[in-house]
Amino acid sequence: MMQVESLQPAAAPFLGFARLLRRHAFAIAPEQVTSFMQAVTLLGPRSMADIREAALATLAPSPDRRGEFDAHFRSYFYGDAEPSIEGEEDDETRIKDDRGTRKEEKQIARQEKGGELSSALEQLSSRDFQRDTDGLGLFRRRLASALPTRRSFRTARTRSRGALDLRRSLSEIVSADGDIPSPLLRRRQTVPRKLLILIDVSGSMKPHTADYLKLAHAAVQGADRAEVFTFGTRLTRINSALRIRDRGQALARAAALVDDWDGGTHMGPTLLAFLSVPRFSAFARGACVVILSDALERGSHAELELAMRRLGARAFRLSLATPLAGDPRFRPATAALRAILPVLDDLVDGSSLKSLTDFILSLARPGPAAEAIWKRVS
């Protein structure tokens, strides 16, 4: 963690509070500490309540330790008595967190480097995010080179097959006293396209959302221009959480950001809300858009169809990965799927991490439209 001596005096108390929490086995990454101080700066702050809200939003204590967090906040900023931590945590919570003894915690905190202390078990509801999944390391390493590319407006020097760089060529002629050297050429660079992943976190997708978040974390770590949103009844951008290198900490932070886990789904309205925000809509322009959802829209599908048509018009490639397609008997027979099928470039199996990683790594290879494929199957 950053040194207090290198900070402004006003920032030192906030860094000290983060260190206090880490001494008591709260899993806090350096990025979270930076976000905490930035949030305090943005809020003013006008009161201690603003500081507390900034700390809750950025340091993200787990719900079962919220009381302990508030006790440390009052102790540090108000001078209340130091809370009795051993008395507040019951045995079940300690076993579930699997943090070991207090002596071991302090020794780990002294020996760690880079602020990468994390608990042995991170959970969203009762789902384990910490267990490693085969294939995601290779996927992360291959993603950047596997994405489709486009020609950038930026140029780079080249020895052949480029356009004349008139300004630099004239400068060379002047510096050579009128002699005509070899002309200087520039060529437009080729860059990977953006990857936009939209994850359905409604109740019907509960068996798959843990794996989808692991995939999203690997995508953000592997591609410079990957964006990830969750949607159910609300829309949430979780890139700030997924940029944390440690997957356990990243997914725990994402779990704290999203409020509509395992609830209902308003797929059409939330996608329209995404498109209504210019900054978000720009993420889809020229991007490979992958929607991870069963597309079981409740009620009228008119808004879903409208949202998908608008997304398709902006995206380079629009894909829907549904876990229902893992069943060989699956057919896009619902009214919503039939309505959006002509807009989709791909309708693929999203029931496993292997099928998803194989598909995303193949996005650069063109293929027949989803409607043509599924008409042949039907």
TrEMBL record:
CDD domains: vWFA. Residues 93-115 have a biased composition (Basic and acidic residues). Residues 83-124 are annotated as: Disordered. Pfam families: VWA_CoxE (PF05762). Residues 83-92 have a biased composition (Acidic residues). PANTHER family: BLL5662 PROTEIN, BLL5662 PROTEIN-RELATED. This is VWA domain-containing protein. It comes from Mesorhizobium montanum.
